[in-house]
Amino acid sequence: MDQAANDHFQRLCDIVAQLRAPGGCPWDREQTNESLLPALIEEAYEVAGAVRAKDDANFREELGDLLLLIVMHAEIAGEAGRFKIDNVISEVSEKLIRRHPHVFGEGDAHDSGAVLKQWERIKHEEKKTNGGHYLDGLPSALPGLIRAQKAQSKSARVNFDWTELGDVIAKVEEELSEAKAAIASLATASRVGAATGQDRQAIENEIGDLLFAVVNLARKCQLDAESALQKATDKFVTRFNRLEDELRTQGKKLGDVDLGELDAIWNRIKENAQHPTSNAQRSSSELDVES
Question: Is this prediction's pTM over 0.85?
């Protein structure tokens, strides 16, 4: 970091300190580490959104907002005498040096796979306690998809992993079959009035296993499950908005149209999205005939 960057960072820290000081901003002075948690999580997601959108201006802004919250959290801790931003920076710097012996020491890691295994080994040694487990450090607060993929990735680094993609696909199919069986069992029990909470719990368990298996499939295909689902959701929202627009052109509203008609419109939208060129050519030909 050059001197100008150091100066800018120190200025940010000074501004935050002034906001928190007597006579500063009433809102900033009221904040605690706990009260700022929702904003911290929200800003991290907004950073991710800017990256996915490939919007550098927004990316830069969102990184600034995230950095502000990090400095604010450290300032609040510093006021209570717990630690300062200097401690945060110093500790993470030392950790980077310890966990990169192939760069800063005598370690030997020539590819990213070896680097990750080395990182996990060093991290495990640093955090090891009597009776501790390898996955104890897996954050419980992570979103489900991210936590599942992180657990799978960490396990893979110690060789607990499927070797063939076909085995992973077979596992997805197995879990889907078990979910179907649990749903069928509940339906049967419901018809005879014998459905129990355990039947519904069985479905939850099987669907959870299915989701976990699908996340593993994404990982083995070198995809990020969270990003893949975000893109699928974005696609759904875009198409649903087009469906709503189509209804409006017909003088209709959502909620007043039956599923059959909605499906027909949806399928046309999907077809247009998958084959835009052929549909444009077909529309042009239809216009030629009409003219």
Answer: no
d(CA 174, CA 178) in angstroms, rounded, equals: 6
Give the whole-angstrom CA distance, residue 103 versus residue 114: 13
User: What is the per-residue pLDDT for 116?
Assistant: 85
* pLDDT value at residue 130: 54
**186, 200 in Cβ contact below 8 A?**
yes
Query: Rounded CA gap, 35 and 31, in Å?
Result: 6
Could you report the per-residue pLDDT of 199-233, keeping only the tens digit for each? 889 999 999 999 999 999 999 999 999 999 999 99
| Distance from C-alpha of 47 to C-alpha of 52, rounded to nearest angstrom | 9
Q: Other CB atoms closer than 10 Å to residue 218's CB: what's the count?
A: 20
Residue 238's pLDDT is 95
- Per-residue exposure over 158-168, b if at least 16 CB sit within 10 Å of its own CB, e if not: eeeebeeeeeb
Q: Do residues 149 and 224 touch, judged by C-beta distance below 8 A?
A: yes
Whole-angstrom distance, CA of residue 208 vs CA of residue 173: 14
Altogether, the residues listed in the chain come to a count of: 291
- Token digits of residue 257: 């149209």
Residue 46 has φ and ψ, to the nearest 5°, of -70, -35
Query: Looking at residue 129, what is its pLDDT?
Result: 56
pLDDT digits (tens, 9 = 90+) for 20-44: 999 999 999 999 999 999 999 999 9
3-state secondary structure at position 139: coil
3-state secondary structure of 36: coil
Alpha carbon distance, N-terminus to C-terminus of the chain: 67
Q: Is the distance from CB of 149 to CB of 219 less than 8 angstroms?
A: yes
